[in-house]
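Q: Got a minute? One more chain.
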Amino acid sequence: MDRATADYMGMLATVMNALALMDAMERRNLVVRVQSAVEMHAVAEPYIRRRAIRHLEKGRVVIFGAVLATRISLLTPAAALRAMEISADVLIKATKVDGVYDSDPVKNPAAVRFEHLTYMETTQPSAGSHG
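A: Always. Here it is, folded:
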């Protein structure tokens, strides 16, 4: 499969996950809004920074799916950017991996899991060798 197509499919999957999380939260009587940078008005609001902030001011939970309207390999930095834009108190990243590793634990059974990792260690090229 073409990489761009796979990336777009991944972004759509984040919207599906956002809708599932919204449903679970609404079942617990929380007021939730899903926003997406990829337009899909039938299921999510468009991402508009000021609108997201206004929802938060009103006590609503805002969930971002498809955080960027362009393909990107690393969605976590994009999610962190959105969190910074709205001055979020919390950023939650849900994943099937139980931590941060020096390589992909699915592909490398010998991958080393970091017990503690600072921001500075993640920005240095040698972060993977610190164990």
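A: The longest strand covers residues 32-36.
Q: Perfect, thanks.
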